[in-house]
Design a protein that fits this description.
Shape: elongated
Number of strands: 11
Strand content: 15-25%
Order of helices and strands: HHEHEHEHEEEHHEHEHEEHHE
Largest sheet: 6 strands, mixed
Number of helices: 11
C-alpha cells in the first residue's frame, strides 16, 4: 500500500491488515539503517558468523609455522660447503663425523681421501682445499711455516696404530707376530708407499726394528696410500698387510679378517693433525668443523675406530 494512502475509511479487519502491510517496509528500512551504522572495525566474529571466526583463528595459528619456515630458510641461506683433504686412515670414521656436523649445522662437507704426502704437495701447488687432515703432523707444520694455514687452527686430533692383517681364509699363525711374514706361504706383503705415506714409513720401521726388513723386502707391494694397501689384502692381491687399525676395526670389516697389533714401541708415533688452510679462512664452517672435532663424543668415536685420541 502506498505511504500516503488514507486508511480512515476502511473498517475492521481490512484496516488492521492495511496497517501491518505499511509497518513491514518501515521495519525493513530501519533494520537496514541500523546495520549500516555497525562500525567497520568490528571483527566478523562479533556479528555471529562462525566461519569467519574459524578463519580468524586459522590465520593466527599459522604464524608459528611461518616463523619455522623462515628460520629454516635463513639456515640454508648461510650454509657453506667446505672441501676437506683427509688421510686415508680416516676413510671409515670421518664420514660419520662429517654427517653429524652436517646434521647439526646445515653446512656441507665434501671429503677427499688419499696419502698425506700427496695432499701436501697438491696444497703447496694451490689445490683449493679448506681443511687438511694429515696422518703426519709434519706436513701441516710445513704448510703453516709457508703461510698457507690459518693462524691458530693447528690441532693434533689423534695418534694412529698399525697392525698385521690377514683374511679369514689365511692359515697363517698370527701369534708368531711379524716373524710369520718369513713363512714361504707369504709371497706378497702390502704396505703403504713409504715415500709419502706415514703408515708406510711406520711399517718399514717396525720390520727393521724386528730385524725382518731384509728378509721380506722382496715381498713388499705398495699401495698409494694406506687404504689402497688394505684393499690389496682384501681383494686377494696380497697375502698379508701392515695397515691401519682404524681400517680393519671398522664395522663389517672386522669380520672379514684377523689382525695382530704391532707394538707401538717398534715404530715412530703416527701423530696426526688438522689445520684450516688459507683458502678456507673466509669460511666460518671450516673452523667450526675443526672445533667440532674437540668434543668428547667425537674423541670417543675416534677411539672406537682404533685411534688414540689427541687433543693438543
Amino acid at each position: 500500500m502506498p505511504l500516503g494512502a488514507d486508511v480512515n475509511g476502511v473498517g475492521g479487519d481490512a484496516r488492521e491488515a492495511m496497517l501491518k502491510s505499511y509497518e513491514r517496509p518501515m521495519n525493513m528500512r530501519l533494520t537496514g539503517r541500523l546495520m549500516n551504522r555497525i562500525p567497520a572495525r568490528v571483527p566478523p566474529a562479533s556479528i555471529g558468523n562462525p566461519n569467519d571466526a574459524f578463519r580468524h583463528r586459522r590465520r593466527r595459528s599459522a604464524w608459528p609455522w611461518v616463523f619455522l619456515f623462515l628460520l629454516g630458510w635463513c639456515r640454508l641461506a648461510v650454509a657453506e660447503e667446505i672441501l676437506v683433504a683427509a688421510a686415508a686412515d680416516l676413510n671409515f670414521v670421518l664420514p660419520k663425523i662429517a654427517e653429524r656436523f652436517e646434521q647439526e649445522t646445515g653446512h656441507r662437507v665434501k671429503l677427499s681421501f688419499g696419502s698425506s704426502g700427496n695432499f701436501y704437495a697438491q696444497i703447496e701447488n694451490g689445490a683449493p682445499f679448506d681443511v687438511f687432515f694429515s696422518a703426519d703432523m709434519d706436513f701441516p707444520r710445513k704448510l703453516e711455516a709457508a703461510g698457507l694455514v690459518q693462524s691458530g687452527t693447528f690441532y693434533e686430533y689423534a695418534t694412529g696404530k698399525i697392525v698385521l692383517w690377514v683374511p679369514n681364509q689365511s692359515k697363517l699363525d698370527l701369534t708368531r707376530g711379524l716373524s710369520v711374514l718369513t713363512d714361504p706361504a707369504v709371497r706378497k706383503i702390502a704396505i703403504a708407499n713409504p715415500q709419502h705415506a706415514p703408515y708406510g714409513r711406520a711399517a718399514v720401521a717396525a720390520l727393521e726394528n724386528n730385524h725382518l726388513y731384509d728378509a721380506v723386502k722382496h715381498k713388499l707391494v705398495f699401495g698409494e696410500n694406506i687404504s689402497q694397501a688394505f684393499q690389496l689384502v682384501n681383494t686377494g692381491n696380497a697375502d698379508a698387510g701392515i695397515v691401519a687399525l682404524s681400517l680393519v676395526g671398522a664395522p663389517g670389516i672386522e669380520k672379514t679378517g684377523r689382525y695382530y697389533e704391532i707394538a707401538s714401541a717398534s715404530y715412530p708415533p703416527i701423530r696426526q693433525a688438522v689445520v684450516v688452510l688459507k683458502t678456507g679462512a673466509k669460511k666460518p664452517a671450516a673452523r667450526a668443523f675443526v672445533e667440532f672435532l674437540k668434543r668428547p663424543e667425537i674423541a670417543a668415536l675416534m677411539r672406537e675406530y682404533g685411534f688414540q685420541a689427541g687433543g693438543h
